[in-house]
Design a protein that fits this description.
4-stranded parallel β-sheet; alpha/beta
Amino acid sequence: MSHVNLRKLIQRVSEKQSGQLFIATHNSLISARLELRNLLIMHESTDEEPVSLRDLREETAKYFQKAPVASILEFAISAKAILVEGPSEYMLFEKFFETTMGHKPENDNVQIIDIRGLSFKRYLEIAKILGNKVAVVTDNDGDKQKNCIDKYADYLVDANVMICCDGDNEKCTFEIVLYSDNKILCDRLFKDNALDYMLKNKTEAAYKLLEQNETIAVPEYIRGAIEWIKD
């Protein structure tokens, strides 16, 4: 339970030069710091046979050793996952799912995971090995073709991966899309210069939207991700 002591233990294990150690864990820190390529994953899509990540690129495995843990094991053992790129999307996503489907994500065995480092391609490498179903919900950053299609071309050929973003390059970020689809509500909630407030206070704006009682219109590309991941 002590994060510091756990890191000390991981260091002792990693420095061991002889013998072999088997660890059963649901801890992402242990899994990532002792290198993902050592993992054998009991995954629900594997018919009780463990899946090895030994074929993961060394560079990607080392990336996860150094990066924030960010629910890597939660992702690896999930059958269906929606990856979002920030806390504001994460805060609102369960509400979007309930509005779209009429129930919570867990009813469809769907995990919502915030990938703050925008390391979507690293996670998709793992999905390529495991075969779990993954929807990436991301901003188009002003160029859908470049940032959402060409960038992920190596993964879009896989039936278990979908990249979802708004099709209008003018709507380059989540907050702009959200404001556009909920203009009356946002103007009333955030008063003058509502969009400017939402862009400068992303998580606070998301929280205020979540706490109010009116229905929030779900952006089309997010609705598409939810409907795809459920099917």
